[in-house]
Structure formats: C-alpha cells, structure tokens
Amino acid sequence: MNPLLGQRIAFRFDGAIYCVGCGRKTSKSFNQGYCYPCFRSLAACDTCIMSPERCHFLEGTCREPEWGLEHCMTGHVVYLANGTGLKVGITRAGQVPTRWIDQGAVQALPLARTATRQQAGFVEVALKAHVSDRTQWQQLLKGDPEPLDLVAARAEMLARFGPEIERLQQTFGLQAIQPADDAAVWSFDYPVLEFPVKVRSLALEKLGSVEGTLLGIKGQYLILSSGVINIRKYTGHEVEVLAQG
C-alpha cells in the first residue's frame, strides 16, 4: 500500500465473507474471520487465546492438540512496547517484530522469554497489575507518542517482579522462564503523511463502500482523508480495492 500514499483509493464490499478456518461462505464473521461453527470448535478461538494463563493443553482438553503444540507449546516473548504509552504484551518468538508492527508500536523491547504461551501469560498477568496491556487505538492514530526509556522500564519491572518470576521458575523450571535483559530496543516508523485531528472509524460492512485519499498506514489501520479503517476487522471479507490516482 505504500506506493498509494497520497492517492485516492476506494474500498467496495458486496457482503461476501469467507471463513478463514474452513473457507465456506458465512453471513457473519466471528473472532476476526471465522464462521460460527469454527468459532465454537477451533483452538484458535478458545478463551485461552485471549487469556493464555488459562491454557488447558496439559490437562488434555485442548480443542486441537496439534495446533496447540505448534502455536502454544513453543517459545514466547513477554515484551514492553510504546504505542500510546507503556504497555506489556506477549507474542510467539517467531512473531517478533511482526506483532509490534501490527499493533502500531513505535518502540518495543523483550522483557522475558518463556517455553510456552501459558508461562508467558502468567508473567503478563503479574506485570499488568501495574502496567497496561492495552493500546488506545484512537490516540494511536493521532500521532506518535513520546519516546520511552524501555531499558530502564524493563530493569524496574524485572526488579519489582523478580520474586514472582522466581516462583514461576520453581514451578516450571529455571530454563522455562528467563529474563531477556540482553535484548535491544526495536524502533519503528510508519508511512504517515498526516495524522487526523479527530479519528472517525469507517464501518465498511455498513457503508458498503468507502473512499478517500490514503494519508497513512499505522499498524492494522489505514488512515484516509474520510476516516480510518481497521483492516484486521475485515479478515475473510471479500473487498475490492481501487486506486484512483
């Protein structure tokens, strides 16, 4: 999309939605792209995806054990990021730095590395009692935040929550959860010509078509002269994109 910056573009949605799980046509999308049967049956849509500390793989009740092995029982990173201020989050090790770019972070820094998603979830739960785990999407699209000293923030978090991390190490093993105090800060720039003064969300599924000059791309959002579109929201939707020059 970068070459289209400054150009007028249009999005047209005719109502066709295809499940990203099974591929069949569906009248409504659940959990960003799934039909209702897949939403009810796939491990990717289980509640433990949003609350990883509730992972039940080791209890033998995972909806899809093979999927769980690949996506959850693998290395994860607990991180600090700056998108609209300091926040904590987790991601699979293989999703670095994609996850941070998707969120629109301008800075990110690994805080700890874990052997599984659940372990990362336990560390995140401890930290988010004092650090937000949310990004304010409207504020995100009004401009970039002031830079933060993430290295100092990481040192403070590791010192404050050292006892909790040690407790988790006693439960899961010393090598399962390790501080990432050797990791460097990542910084990101986004192609934005102009940030909106007032953020207006464009509901493509209701409007049917949306058009405007493409002013920027930040995270999962396209900034148009007429408003902003959260592209991730339309996963599985069949949308025609027209560049009008």
Domain count: the total is 2
Largest sheet: 6 strands, antiparallel
Terminal Cα span: 13 Å
Oligomer: single chain
* General form: flat
SSE series: EEHHHEEHEHHHHEEHEEEE
Overall pLDDT score: 96
Number of strands: 11
Model regions low in confidence, pLDDT < 50 over at least 5 residues: none
Radius of gyration: 20 Å
In helices, the fraction of residues equals 25-40%
Which class of secondary structure composition applies to the elements?
Answer: alpha+beta
Strand content: 25-35%
Instruction: Specify the number of helices.
Output: 9
Task: Report on the architecture of this protein.
The protein has helices at 36-41, 47-50, 65-71, 98-103, 117-127, 137-140, 150-160, 162-172, 204-207, and strands spanning 8-18, 25-26, 76-82, 86-92, 107-114, 177-179, 186-187, 209-218, 221-224, 227-230, 237-243. It has 245 residues and is α+β, with helices and mostly antiparallel strands. Strands 1, 2, 8, 9, 10 and 11 form a six-stranded antiparallel β-sheet that branches. The chain has nine helices and eleven strands. A hairpin with a 6-residue loop joins strand 1 (8-18) and strand 2. The protein has two domains: 2-16 and 191-243, no CATH class; 52-187, no CATH class.
Summary of the model, kept short:
The protein is 26% helix and 27% strand. It has 245 residues and is an alpha+beta fold.
